[in-house]
Design a protein that fits this description.
seven-stranded mixed sheet; Acyl_CoA_acyltransferase; 4 helices; about 30% helix; GNAT family N-acetyltransferase; Bact_Acetyltransf; alpha+beta; GNAT_dom; about 150 residues; single chain
């Protein structure tokens, strides 16, 4: 499935954002859901990766650059495309772009109940790290990183 950098403000991409939010809120309290909204995904330097099948967005992820590292945000795959390797393709596209941008490390935050996500990231070389940034002190946060 092709993965491309696209604007976040598109109906089918926003549907993925809604699905991601519903999923996160089904597991964690609202103040532990660090989800970027459309306007934050439109900030300078932030790139949104979209995977489409038959011109329908079925998966997405975002790369947010910081000084010295990049952060993976909003990786989500629609139920219709689960189990097809789409999350891994999105993750690889974000990693490739982070390398192109000269970011030495990619970090992420998920939650301890997100077992499938933790397994995916571990399979792709991510290791658990102490919570960083806004996640410090949040028992519902599980942070990981991968040197690029």
């Amino acid at each position: 499935m092709p993965v491309a950098i696209e604007p976040a403000r598109q109906r089918d991409v926003e549907a993925l954002l809604d699905g991601s939010e519903q999923f996160a809120l089904s597991l964690y309290p609202p103040d532990s859901c660090y989800l970027l909204d459309v306007s934050e995904l439109e900030a300078p330097g932030v790139e949104v990766f979209v995977a489409r099948v038959d011109d329908v967005a079925l998966g997405m992820a975002a790369l947010v650059p910081y000084d010295g590292y990049g952060e993976l945000k909003r990786l989500f795959v629609d139920d219709r495309a689960r189990g097809q390797g789409l999350a891994g393709q999105l993750l690889a596209a974000v990693e490739d772009r982070a390398r192109e941008r000269g970011l030495p490390v990619l970090r992420l935050e998920t939650g301890p109940l997100s077992v499938a996500a933790i397994a995916l990231y571990g399979k792709h070389g991510y290791e658990r790290i102490p919570n960083f940034g806004p996640y410090v002190g949040d028992e519902h946060s599980y942070c990981m990183e991968k040197p690029l």
